[in-house]
Specification:
Layout: H1 7-18, H2 22-44, H3 54-67, H4 76-102, H5 114-139, H6 141-152, H7 157-164, H8 168-187
Helix pairs in contact: 1-2, 2-3, 3-4, 4-5, 4-6, 4-7, 5-6, 5-8, 6-7, 6-8, 7-8
């Protein structure tokens, strides 16, 4: 993953945060904000018309990370792995809200148009993906973590291996296995 931030500076800020410097997390998030926007943009690509945009997604993730003040990040890759999980949670929460509105959660009926139908369809797909990921994680937690790092954070094999303390070969095997299992579950 090509980044504009200085990995050494990211690591220094992570260590400062771990040592109790709460301001370090804010500086860290400012530093990695462009990378988080790129990741969010990839996650939201092709979902035209939705109200959750890259800025909204990054801001929601930022709030999750700031609220989790007790977390200690081992390194830059671990930080992005945690960020990937937070991003997944925000996206799935958003999708659930969209499908709840679609089913009439007390809200006034909205006129149907192509753009709105596309968003609703994507929300259902995201929820189906999340359910498949949850089942995958129940059977093999490592596969779920690899998917979060590779798919949701866009980490490379090397970065995923570092974040999850695995060998590159294990990451590659888990990535292939997870994709195969998810493909089978989602094709049903």
């Amino acid at each position: 993953m090509s980044t504009t931030e200085d990995p050494g500076q990211v690591t220094q800020l992570l260590h400062a945060h771990r040592d109790g410097d709460q301001a370090a997390l804010h500086h860290l998030l400012e530093l990695v904000y462009p990378q988080l926007r790129k990741i969010a943009g990839r996650q939201l690509a092709g979902n035209s018309g939705q109200t959750l945009d890259t800025v909204g997604l990054v801001n929601e993730v930022y709030l999750k990370l700031v609220d989790d003040r007790d977390r200690n990040y081992a390194n830059r890759a671990h930080f992005f792995a945690v960020t990937a999980r937070a991003m997944r949670q925000v996206i799935i929460d958003y999708a659930r809200k969209r499908t709840a509105k679609k089913r009439g959660s007390g809200e006034a009926a909205l006129p149907l148009d192509e753009e709105r139908v596309a968003v609703e369809r994507e929300a259902e797909n995201l929820i189906a993906l999340n359910e498949a990921l949850e089942r995958l994680g129940q059977n093999d937690e490592r596969l779920l973590r690899v998917v979060e790092c590779r798919f949701f954070a866009g980490l490379t094999t090397d970065e995923t291996a570092e974040a999850l303390d695995m060998s590159n070969r294990t990451v590659e095997r888990c990535w292939r296995e997870a994709k195969d299992k998810l493909r089978k579950v989602l094709s049903r």
